[in-house]
Amino acid sequence: MFSECVLIDFPFLTLLVLASSLAAALTASAVGYGFPGIFFSAAGVPLLFNMVDWLILDWLIFCTFTPTFAVLPGTEGMAGYKNYAMHFKGFLKGMLYSVGVGAVMAAIVVVGEVVLHFA
Q1: Contact 81/64 with Cβ under 8 angstroms?
Q2: Which of 38, 52, 75, 97 is 20 to 30 A removed from 62 (C-alpha atoms)?
Q3: What is the spatial distance between Cα 40 and Cα 110, in angstroms, rounded to a whole number?
């Protein structure tokens, strides 16, 4: 079951975030923003996704409420389910991902404007 989720859900979510980030970058470009505006628009999509994952899913639902569907059989009551620091470290890694995606998408759009002469 886990491998099916990884093989289907992870690529789908990654593609969804990348496509949304590219759409935000193209929209910022169409409005006339330069590289910084395109970068912040493109980086904002994965950043928002990361913040929702961290605050709502990880901290509120999994750490605070810890529903039974999220607990692996035989691990009930273990301290790891209340490990807020682990989720914060994951959020910081996601921030680096957001910056990287924003930079790549902004570079693609700006280079595309120069090479293809669209504006």
Answers
A1: no
A2: 97
A3: 13
Q: How far is CA 23 from CA 19, 26, 29, 49, 113, in A?
A: 6, 5, 10, 15, 15
What is the C-alpha radius of gyration for the chain, rounded to an integer number of angstroms?
18
- DSSP annotation of 71 reads S
pTM surpassing 0.90? no
DSSP code for 97: H
Number of helices (H) and strands (E) in the chain: give both, helices first: 3, 0
Name the domain count of the chain: 1
Residue 28, Cβ density class (10 Å: 0-12 exposed, 13-18 middle, ≥19 buried): buried
- Domain limits at 6? 2-116
Spell out the per-residue pLDDT of the chain, length 119, in tens. Answer: 556 677 777 888 889 999 999 999 999 999 999 999 999 999 999 999 999 999 999 999 999 999 998 888 999 888 888 999 999 999 999 999 999 999 999 999 999 999 987 65
